[in-house]
Amino acid sequence: DSGVTQTPKHLITATGQRVTLRCSPRSGDLSVYWYQQSLDQGLQFLIQYYNGEERAKGNILERFSAQQFPDLHSELNLSSLELGDSALYFCASSVGLAGGNEQFFGPGTRLTVL
Amino acid sequence: GQQLNQSPQSMFIQEGEDVSMNCTSSSIFNTWLWYKQDPGEGPVLLIALYKAGELTSNGRLTAQFGITRKDSFLNISASIPSDVGIYFCAGNQRMDSSYKLIFGSGTRLLVRP
């Protein structure tokens, strides 16, 4: 158990809909990262927050957005969903921003768009 | 974007054999991390490397941070069935005002009992 929690575990929805994925980082970690993993693909970095502020952006679509709340949990919002958005979405957390910080991953949310 | 070349793509070995996989990049990384992912689960951190030339072990796993800071390898000795999974390398690189992990494409390991 990494200490990172994600809900829900599974999500099935229809095209055009909007969903919210939730992540709680490990106790004491200030950074939260979101990744997308499509079938048999590697992990693609989406976005990072540190102590409530956005710090780095990867290949995140404009239809997607995220935020980190004062209690440090984070939410990833996916809107106008398309079939191609079906994937595993992982949250990871680390202590800080420094390049040596190890990232610990949650169990993921499997999103299926029908 | 930046790419990590991870090889081999897959390995099918006999229980008890040693395994070696590696990652190379055209870019320099500050940190190399190795993760293992079981199907439908999140990646689990195996080993973290912080300095060029560093050699670190974790049980039957050994990993090294290349001298040029552009490569890393992971060795698994005396493989067992529970080693089955996908192994990812990841390099930590500065981006904007922070750092991000860039992942290799993974090595799928199958172990024949």
Structure description:
The complex is a heterodimer of chains A (114) and B (113). With 114 residues, chain A is mainly beta. Chain A is built from no helices and eleven strands. In chain A, a hairpin with a 2-residue loop joins β5 (44-50) and β6. The mean pLDDT of chain A is 93. With 113 residues, chain B is mainly β. Chain B has strands spanning 5-7, 10-14, 19-24, 31-37, 44-49, 55-58, 61-65, 71-76, 85-95, 98-103, 107-112. In chain B, strands 2, 4, 5, 9, 10 and 11 form a six-stranded mixed β-sheet that branches. Chain B is globular and about 45 Å long. Chain B starts with a strand and ends with a strand. The model of chain B has no long low-confidence stretch (mean pLDDT 92). The A-B interface holds A 2, 4, 31, 33, 41-45, 48, 50, 55-59, 88, 90, 97-108, 110 and B 1, 30-31, 33, 35, 40-45, 48, 50, 88, 90, 92-106.
Envelope shape of chain B: globular
Oligomer state of the chains in this structure:
heterodimer
Total of DSSP H or I helical runs spanning 4+ residues of chain B: 0
How would you sum up the major sheet of chain B? Answer: 6 strands, mixed
Rounded mean pLDDT score of chain B: 92
- Rg measurement of chain A, Å: 13 Å
Total strand count of chain B, please? 11
Q: Write down the overall mean pLDDT of chain A.
A: 93
Instruction: Report the β-strand fraction of chain A as a percent range.
Output: over 45%
Determine the most extensive contact between two protein chains. A-B, 31 and 30 residues
The secondary-structure element order of chain A is EEEEEEEEEEE
User: Spans of chain B of 5+ residues with little confidence (pLDDT < 50)?
Assistant: none
Termini distance of chain A?
A: 31 Å
Sum up the overall morphology of chain A in one term: globular
- Counting DSSP H or I runs of 4 or more residues, the number of helices of chain A is 0
Residues in helix, % of chain B: under 10%
Round the Cα radius of gyration of chain B to an integer and report it: 14 Å
Question: What would you call the structural class of chain A?
Answer: mainly beta
Residue windows where pLDDT falls under 50 for at least 5 positions of chain A: none
